[in-house]
């Protein structure tokens, strides 16, 4: 994060010593898109601590990806780090193929890669920007899931990252909110499609969380950053999201599919 952003948001916390792994994902083969930072890195570290082999797809921040690799390996887990474009179908297929070549299949897919850009009015949103939101936030989920499902079997789990905004809206994040609403619908439909195959599909809907994605507000409206909070009076931390993904990935949630875990600090959405 930039020095200015550090003044407004707390330091990012990915995992703590208080989280004790218990082999809930021992030897599971995990692919996480957008796994180099924020919630994605927290998920990677928590799943590694649970005994999984963890592959991440990242876009361009090689330093952040290297830090995540180091964190995964510090947990005693195998790490596979790949650079690619989540909005490109071929790139997603190549990523999945690399995981399969290395480990023989995929047991858990976490579709987490995302981007957001704020706008004050619809007239400011170009066709290209609108399309980019859908390429990254929604199309990438479809491309990666489609490719991965050829290598997933009964007992596997797909976990998508949607957002609180899909349920309550956000005046400054209309393209982002629209894509996250699409993720909700896709998750529910795919869960029904895969029911007979014994593959569960769920999603996590984070509320306001202290991650790098909030940097977009730095030059847009500093007031929004200062006021970003929850009924708990604070932002969430990525480390508080990681265990939700672990739950949906492991057999503790064997009777859960098509559902949303709202991790948002007490914001009631009834969705």
């Amino acid at each position: 994060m930039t020095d200015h952003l550090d003044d407004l948001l707390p330091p990012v916390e990915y995992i703590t010593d208080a989280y004790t792994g218990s082999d809930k994902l021992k030897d599971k083969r995990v692919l996480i898109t957008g796994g180099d930072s924020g919630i994605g890195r927290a998920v990677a570290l928590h799943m590694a601590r649970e005994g999984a082999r963890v592959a991440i797809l990242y876009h361009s921040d090689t330093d952040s990806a290297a830090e995540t690799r180091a964190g995964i390996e510090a947990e005693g887990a195998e790490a596979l780090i790949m650079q690619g474009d989540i909005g490109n179908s071929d790139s997603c297929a190549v990523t999945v193929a690399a995981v399969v070549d290395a480990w023989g299949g995929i047991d858990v897919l976490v579709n987490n890669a995302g981007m957001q850009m704020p706008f004050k009015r619809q007239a400011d949103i170009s066709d290209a920007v609108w399309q980019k939101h859908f390429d990254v936030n929604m199309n990438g989920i479809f491309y990666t899931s489609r490719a991965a499902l050829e290598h997933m079997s009964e007992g596997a789990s797909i976990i998508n990252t949607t957002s609180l905004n899909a349920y309550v809206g956000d005046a400054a994040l209309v393209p982002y909110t629209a894509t996250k609403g699409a993720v909700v619908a896709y998750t529910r439909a795919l869960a029904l499609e895969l029911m007979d195959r014994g593959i569960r599909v769920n999603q996590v809907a984070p509320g306001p969380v202290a991650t790098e994605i909030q940097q977009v507000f730095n030059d847009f409206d500093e007031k929004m950053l200062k006021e970003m909070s929850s009924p708990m009076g604070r932002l969430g931390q990525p480390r508080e999201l990681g265990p939700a993904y672990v739950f949906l990935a492991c057999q503790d949630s064997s009777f859960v599919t098509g559902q949303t875990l709202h991790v948002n600090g007490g914001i009631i959405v009834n969705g």
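The chain has one domain: 3-11+23-262. The longest strand covers residues 200-206.
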